[in-house]
Write a structure and sequence with these properties.
- There is one protein chain.
- The protein is built from 8 helices and 5 strands.
- By secondary structure, the chain is of the alpha+beta class.
- Strands 2-3-5-1-4 form a 5-stranded mixed beta sheet.
- Helix 4 runs antiparallel to helix 5.
Amino acid sequence: MKQRKWLAAAMALLLTLQLVSCGSSSADSASNESVKVSTAMAEASADVDYGYDEVAETEDADTTESGESLASSYDPSQVKLIYTAWVDVEALDFDVAVSGLEALVDELGGYCESSYLGNYSSGRYASYTVRVPQEQYRAFLDAWSESDNCHLLSREENVDDVGTEYFDLETRLNTLNTKMERLQTLLAQAEEMADIIAIESEISDTEYEIEIYTSQLNRYDSLINYSTVYLTIDEVVTLSEDEEESLGARLLQNLRWGAEGFVDGLEELAVWLARNLIGIAIAAVLAVILVTAILRRRRNRKGAGKKKTPGQSIPTEPEQTESETKK
């Protein structure tokens, strides 16, 4: 009996040791799997540059999977030009100039991004932000050079090369897309819940960065493909090139502008009075009441000063001497 008890105890001990060994092996396996996933995620993020400096200005440039420098792969001949212009014109027939502008924009395949029309004492005024295809940019500007109805007052142009910035954004976006593919592959292979949560969080951050770079590239594409022209049109009676430069003509013109300004000022004053008439009337009544109260108080003070003060003796006439009486 004693031998059987010892044998049962020995078998139980061996079974316990075997279970402990199996549990340790499983834990080590799970730990090794987590380490592998973390290492793979680190490798997926290794090629991503989170800075915002231009590639051409970076001394230690990022490298592609083939090992080539990103800066060295940039071709300076692939320029990305953004054209912007500011044009001011004056027109004899304002309606014809506005309708001609709209027809020209449609003909060239552009569109008006914004517009504003206003009325002034000297005439009407219009301001436009026009977007035209880059290949039609020069044709649109030349159409406003000179005509019988319009006169060009000023024209300013600016050209900005964003090729380096564009290439930098494009490279970073490609790198992020590669990282996203690797993370999705890791997510499909992950088994532990902690690894799945970590990978999904990294995927969310990467998607956000991809959206930012994609938005910036789309903005550049819009500015490159469609040039921007800020155009203003002023309605005038005579074009500047046809106006007389004599002293008399300039005096008459300024007198007319002064008279128009005076009339406009009177109109604005009448409108202001009509809008604030009730407030002005109330203020006037309060002012009359205040002045009346002040004057009444002053009169009361003067009357009080003339009255007899209590305790004050009344002066008597000096007594006459006997000699003076006899006289």
